[in-house]
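U., I forgot to send this yesterday:
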Amino acid sequence: MASELLTIGELADQAGVTTDTLRYYERLRLLPPAPRSNGGYRLYEPGAAERVAFIRKAQALGLTLDDVREVLRVSDAGTPPCEHVRAAIERRLREVEARMAELESLRRTLARALRRNRSRPLARSCVCEIIESHDLPRAGAHRPAASHRLRPGRTRTHLK
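Result:
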């Protein structure tokens, strides 16, 4: 029976992921903790590859790993999780649509800034005329969600 068990490398190859991904899924409790061999190697049941495929498909649908963990928890308890999946997908769709609206607004703002400043000569009296000539929204006007705004001096790479 032990010969049917898969090492982490074998499972990674079979599932099309890295061994680091499998360890991460295990830490997040998306995969049950694998028993260890006498040498300390993780040994997975063959069905673990199907579970990893399910996780990857759920992510491809836009579900977060927290969503996936909840779906798997419900399923592992013996309850069909499809209602949870439907609710998670509906929630994710609303989030994507809101983000798309924010990005469309930003696209229009950027296009206006370029049109307005394309023919202006470069100013030597300010840092950058394009930025300084941009009007800020009035107080109370719609602003992007806080999670998408950058604080001064921060870049997206610092926000992870």
